[in-house]
Amino acid sequence: MNIYICEDNKKQRLTLETIIISLTDNEDYKIKLSTNDPNKVVDELKSIEQKTELQNIYFLDVDLNSNMNGLTLAKEIRKYDVNGYIIFLTSHPELSMLTFQYKVKAMDYIIKCSNDVIRSRVKECFDAISKERKQNSSGDNDTISINFGDSVSFFNTDEILFFETGSKDHKIRIHTTSGFQEFYGTLKKMEEKLNDNFYKTHRSYIVNLNKIKKIDKENLIIYMNNGETCYVALRYLKGLLQKCSQ
Amino acid sequence: MLTVIAKIIYPLILALIIVINTYNLAFVEIKKKNYLYLGLLFYLFYFFVEFTKLSYIITFIDIPILLLFIYHFTKKIYYSIIQVILIISLIGISDSLVGSLLYKSFNIQYEKVLNNTELLILLQLAILFVSSLLSTFLKYVLKDTDFSLIQEDTNSNKINSSTRTLTIYIILLMIIVFLYVFLLTNQANNKSISNGDFFVFTFTFVSFIFILLIVLVTNNAKNHIKQQYYNRELNQLNKYIKSIEDMSTDLRKFKHDYSNIILTLGEYVDTNDIEGLKDFYHNELLTESKEVLNQDQTLSSLKYITNTPLKSFISSKILQATSEKINVHIEIAEEIPQISMRTLELCRVLGILFDNAIEAAKLCDNKILNFAIINDEDKIIIVIQNSCCDDVPPIYKLFQENFSTKGTNRGLGLSNVTDIINKTHHRVTLNTTCKNNLFTQEIVIIKNSEFRK
To answer: What is the pTM of this model?
Structure first.
């Protein structure tokens, strides 16, 4: 994986490079670009030919003495690299973590107070990155993308229990193992994106078959692994049972 | 001799009836001396009528004179009409009341009264008394009622939704009263009033009073609630002001400490004492600066919320969390535009979510509450995160009605939240997740197309 660094303070940039090199000695990470000019980062990304499947690591300072600050640079980066890991460094605690997380899906937000702290936080980031890479490479981890308005979120199909639509205004609620999220869309469009593990059991529900614990045929209730319940309509019951026995 | 006095007093009483009632039912303040002129005018008029015995023209002249008088001083034709209707119907009601009481209790015939001046005077005095009583009563009831057809001042404490019904009711009543008086005079000419008529009349009268009472009560209730709301908002703003003042004091202290540090550093640098400098830096400066950096300037970013009630509400919730020794972290990085969700409902939802977050964080060792408002191009995201313990029940259970980890007879908060969000809004969603002991609630409000950049 390639690492890009953008930091306008020369001394801090060199320190960061040293920290990263010391942490990633044995791995297949390489510092591709270390600069104080955000435009160079963008140009470098533009020049890469195979743009799909780009996934890099970016260490960006929030305050860059340039026409772009860290946030706008991150937004530019996201146009080319949707899955990359962006890590911010700053000495301002106020402009913080959550905002950047939501706006550009920043992975982490490190406050520059002492080198030891920076080093340990960077190490945490690398640990998390390698853990995620291992998870992604093993098994068929399908992710589906869902549009929340202008922005896109990715869900691991393994975490999805079922989709539910309720009220009349085309709102779909995804029930996952860690909670639920709502967005606007139609079940029909969802069906097109999902694979065979999902089946429409009711006009308001699409269920992940891998997560079903038991089906109550008489009362037409499906019990999921975590105890949640959803429903199956009579006309979908037969198809559901067929699919489950496969 | 007596009849001469009577002839002078009688029109006076009539004039008084009109003037006092007009004064009591005035919507707009008119100077008292103008009423004096009005009284004089009516007195002369009634005297003239007495003299010429043209009593049937009274009502026809009364109304225009009153209308002109009120219109001249208020310049509002609508108010003038309503007021005149009220006055005339009030006098009519008093007249019928007194009259029917008299006939009922004393069984006096109408013609007898007409010729007996003393009795007439007594009658009119009674009418004066009753009508003044009623009009004073009405004055207090209608004191805060706004009779305008169009509500100009939305902040005013007056109600006007009852205006139209009240006007219609009064007109109907006036018709009934006149009809009734007409009936009464006809009947009285032939026989005394039957019980049925008396009953009808008192029933109408009582229902009129009843309607007025309802108006009075709803008026008061509405004012009371508005007052409570204003008081609460004022309290919250005061707390906000106090916390800003506290922060300003903290800032002053910090500046003072800072200049001390610079002085100390300067001394080490000037005397070339590197060891001492290293010592000072590692042992004292670093620990102190960590503390300062960790102290979050919590409330300053609230300045980006343009909606004042929302700002004061959020600040009071944050202060509540800080008082429970929870580490609060607020992020509002840029100005938040007008949110396309009604403030009252947003505050209700946020109130429930904040209360839940505070109660959950209190139970942890590491008490954290994160609050952020993020302004995206097409949506606004409000995030409330809190640290939570391991034994959090699965999320779908938390949203079930009557489910609560804190005891019986509770647990309606989150189900209320989903009700509010689903029922009233079409562009609001709620996302709930719990991962790694961090419980997150996100309210996503999609901007209306007018509000987008």
So the answer is: 0.59
